[in-house]
Amino acid sequence: MEKPTSPAVEVRDLRRRYGGPKGYEAVRGISFTVDSGELFALLGTNGAGKTSTLELVEGLDRPTAGSVRVLGLDPVRHRARVRPRIGVMLQEGGFPSDLTVTETAQMWAGTLTRPRPVGEALDMVNLRHREKTVVKQLSGGERRRLDLALALLGRPEVLFLDEPTTGLDPESRRNTWRLVRALLVDGTTVVLTTHYLEEAEELADRLAIMHRGEIVTTGTVADVVASRPARISFDLPAGLDVRQLPPLSGRRPDLDAAKVTTGRTGQRVTLQTDTLQAALTDLLGWAAARDLELPNLDARSASLEEAFLAVADDRTDPTANTTTAGTAARTPEVAV
Ligand SMILES: Nc1ncnc2c1ncn2[C@@H]1O[C@H](COP(=O)(O)OP(=O)(O)OP(=O)(O)O)[C@@H](O)[C@H]1O
Fold it and tell me: What region holds the ABC transporter domain (predicted)?
């Protein structure tokens, strides 16, 4: 199948204000695109504006300003054309709790033009064994899976998932990830919000981290993580002062930022660097030339969690270069 050239979802300068012109602006001029067949994850702190954004993209409300296109169409103005081609899993399902699982799915299927067989949708989310159970007797996780089954009933080209795995046990979460991956292989475009960074790492082709209504950083997981420094940690050999550390990849460690932790095994240093391999090579060369062992040596790239925490922490600019990033550190660090 030839890939369509226009994005599946296109959001430009989107704004959403609640409570009239003087009300609260929950979404403050964000833009992003989602290509066909791609999974785009919206991450962010509580109240960052993820659900508010998703609802506009789903066509549930008009933006205060800016534009949304889904499959090239305005999801509010062209609702009748867009709705049959998308699947929506809201944070709260809100279906009648006295119906059984099958009745609920059949009722929903009745509103769709070419639904999947109900049994197939229930199989996809491992809920077939609960088909005769009334919804109010389902566990929280089972209800989430029923929500997902309903979103899948219409064979959507674009699937919107608002925190799809919240409340799921680890096994159900992994099953859901497997299902989402299979949908992506089939060419479905997915936009999801999540609080699980591991979920974004597992599934997202690209992601955006929102904070206070704005997108603070966006790109692939690797892009987002690359905006944060890598770290090298080791126990300072006895008798050595942190000031004796050598220049690493051409720069002297920033000793102003150096607060060395003192623990059970002595002093521990954490260095930050933009150039992990070069800095590590220099450090190891320096240690070898002095016959020094660097106990508990650990070198690692930044994690998505670190990138997220930096965004959530107002004191830091996540796009800033690493020399200023020491202020965000949970452990004392030296920037190099
Ligand atoms: N209907 C509404 N009326 C007024 N304010 C609202 C409304 N819905 C959301 N908000 C506010 O808009 C902000 C963004 O909310 P939103 O639910 O979009 O955030 P979120 O990123 O999805 O948060 P969470 O991760 O907690 O689900 C919050 O401050 C919220 O209180």
Answer: 9-237
Q: What is the pTM (predicted TM-score) of this model?
A: 0.82
ipTM of the complex: 0.97
Establish whether residue 28 lines the binding site of ligand 1, counting it when its CB lies within 6 angstroms of any ligand atom. Answer: no
DSSP label at residue 251: B
In angstroms, the CA 178 to CA 326 distance is 38
∠ CA 115-120-121 to the nearest 5 degrees? 65
Q: Which of 14, 15, 24 to mutate to test the pocket of ligand 1 (most atoms within 8 A of CB)?
A: 24
Ligand 1 site-directed mutation target among 28, 43, 52, most atoms within 8 Å of CB = 52
Classified as helix, coil or strand, 14 is strand
Q: Is the CB of 116 under 6 A from ligand 1?
A: no
Q: Verify whether ligand 1 is closer than 6 Å to residue 52 (CB atom).
A: yes
The yes-or-no verdict on residue 95 having pLDDT over 80 is: no
Q: What is the DSSP string of 59-86?
A: TSS--SEEEEEETTB-TTTTHHHHGGGE
Task: Give which of 140, 108, 135, 134 is closest to 121, Cα–Cα.
Answer: 108
Give per-residue pLDDT as tens, 255-274.
555 457 777 767 889 888 88
Looking at the DSSP assignment, which residues form a beta bridge with residue 162? 193
Report how many helices (DSSP H) and strands (DSSP E) the chain contains, helices first: 10, 14
Residue 328: CB atoms within 10 A of its CB come to 21
Phi, psi torsion values for 86, nearest 5 degrees? -120, 160
